[in-house]
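Run folding on both entries below.
>entry_1
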Amino acid sequence: MTKNRELKIGCCAPIDRYGEVAAAGFAHIELPGSALARLSREELMQWERTVKDGPIPCRGLNSSIPQEVKICGPMFSEEAACQYARLLCARAAQLGALNIGIGSPMSRTLPRGFSVETAWQQTEQFLRIFCAEALPYGIQVLWEQVNTEETNFGTDSLASLPHVEKLVREGLSNFGLIADFYHMARMGEDAAVALQVAPYVKHMHIAGVHNGRGHVTAEDEAQMKPMFRACAAGAQQSISLEASHGSIGGEGAAARALLLRWLGEGESA
């Protein structure tokens, strides 16, 4: 599969670990969006110099929405969403980012009794606003399912799918999904689910379940490799390791090698 050979493997990390990410052989870094939005002008210029003078690009942003900016819920505000989207998209473009991931569980957790239907209406509008701000920069806005240990909304890939399809039908050309295999595995989802969402997947994330969200290891293979293979056979061209602990040059490099092995097995199958 020619497309598989083009898959670029990167790593989510803060800017001060840029050198480690590059030295470990990753194709790109994925930077924290909420931290990017808080920077002073001088700090933003430092981030920009680090990326532009370095050997690998910034592919996109994770951890994009701060808790005070609500994706949905009783404190949702279109004005606040628009202001934040305008700021973040402009800064993402300065770094050359191609994707902005919308996961951010604390920005979408609902109080007891809040209407799920209303929450989805608000989320759809939030995503429309972000897509409109991102489009002039050629940036994709990607919705991410998150597991129930972190939030109580948008936790099921198949329940999210009708809303994704609705936005695509509306013509949001820069909208899609992140397939996060850690969250999918925590929810008991499998390759059959991955195949259903795969047409909308534009980028992927992965972390280990067996080591408490460290870098993915062979222990995760039985659960994650089929989902990875289901999505990596599609048109998307990138995945980022998104571990919460573990060394980039040690466990991270080993995880990269593992993904390359899975990829090679898919090509030879």
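>entry_2
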Amino acid sequence: MKKDDHRRIKTEYLFKDMPVKKGVEIANYRLWNMEIDGSRIFGEVMWPNGTFDQPRPLVIFFHGFPGGHRSEDIASAWRRAGCVVICPNHRGAWGSGGKFTVSNCIEDAIAIAKFYHNKKNAKQYNIDPDAIFLAGHSMGGNTSINAARKLKWLKGIILFAPGNMVVSMQRDEAAMDNLLAVGAPMLACDGPAALKQDLVDHINDYDFKYAAKDLKKMNICLLLGKYDPSVDYDQDLKPLWDKLTEKGDDGVIRRQKTFPCAHGFCNSRNNAIKYSAEFIADLCNG
């Protein structure tokens, strides 16, 4: 690496560690927590080594339905490339306080992003408050899209097979009932019926197609799986994407790519990581 290399994101380090240098802060992570509406949520925060000395992009990475994969390999790759990454556990999930609902997940995302958009709070991890991204896999994509509607200053959103929860429920109510019934015992919540009622109450809010107006100036990276049985692109995402792109090039970066994999990107993880990191780099390296 050249001494005058001031890129904030260095994608060549996505899959390899930078050598430790004397006098340079090493990369690390620690447990993370934050209070939201009287409930304390937990997670982890990781940061790159001290050669990334400029204010750093922050990616807030939201998990899918609790009990599934948390994709920390993706978070660690972004960290190696130069990002600070926060992986929160939503209210009511994985030991965090409060009650789990889809609505609370969205409100959690808004609260965390706003906290680090404050310059004073951003200094703790040398975060650039104007380079904050939301990212999510599956249900975490639902969280990211609906939170971003109220955070128009975000640098961008990264969506791995985002789950359009209300459309999925309408398409196959029995499958949604089964997901909630299996998942509810792992959560602090009022049961599967309450989780479902939260979706029903927001059926005209959380459908992605209603987000187009709010996201028309948002940079978006969308990653899909060709063999994903959980996401129906035509029903779940195409109405939003068509509205966002109907006017052609409007100065916003929107990228979409389909990988030869299923919902978990297991066949294509490294390529998906690289694709998402290049999106961050193009927005942050100038």
